[in-house]
């Protein structure tokens, strides 16, 4: 059984085996959590992202790639590209589900035991926070795993934190 934890804070401070980055298709870094991870994690992460780009041409929405953790206190970083919300006209709901499934699968393939997720797509990409939280929790709960024993949802803002708290039925 996977243990689910909820915290409010900055994902770059988390000491888990792998953190997930809400990247963009270029893999070259951006704003929000992506910017924070690259700033604090150092150049090594960008170099590895560039290598992946050269090999496969970036990362499609809903897919995920993995790099080292650079200077962050993690073994690996999984970079997944969330969908930009457009009233679900481009199947954003299923694409967000894929972000969680593909990230969990990559963690599992790499035998990583603890993983932390930011609230993918709910910043610059404007995915409705309530829908996104429901998707995140459902996808984690239905993922079948051998290696992963802890999943941490890291919320940066109060609105997301309160939504997760309610959906996870955490009293605190
Ligand atoms: P997206 O483009 O996928 O929306 P953002 O980085 O803009 O990506 O936002 C995704 C979520 O990450 C938002 O809820 C935002 O508040 C949050 N966020 C921003 N910085 C951090 C951080 N340092 N740690 C954790 N979450 C963060």
Question: What is the topology?
Answer:
Layout: E1 3-8, E2 18-23, H1 32-41, H2 43-56, E3 64-68, E4 76-81, H3 92-109, E5 114-117, H4 129-142, E6 150-155, H5 158-167
Parallel strand pairs: 1-6, 2-4, 2-5, 5-6
Antiparallel strand pairs: 3-4
Bound molecules: adenosine-5'-diphosphate.
Summarize the structure.
The protein is α/β, with parallel strands linked by helices. The chain has helices at residues 32-41, 43-56, 92-109, 129-142, 158-167; strands spanning 3-8, 18-23, 64-68, 76-81, 114-117, 150-155. Helix content is 38%, strand content 19%.
What does this structure look like?
- With 172 residues, the chain is an alpha/beta fold.
- The protein has one domain (3-168): Leucine Aminopeptidase, subunit E, domain 1, CATH 3.40.220.10.
- It has 5 helices and 6 strands.
- Strands 1-6-5-2-4-3 form a 6-stranded mixed beta sheet, sandwiched between helices.
- α4 links the parallel β5 (114-117) and β6.
- The radius of gyration is 15 Å and the shape is globular.
- The two termini are 21 Å apart.
- The mean pLDDT is 97.
- Bound molecules: adenosine-5'-diphosphate.
- Residues 10-12, 22, 31-34, 36, 82, 118-125, 154, 156-157, 160 line the site of adenosine-5'-diphosphate.
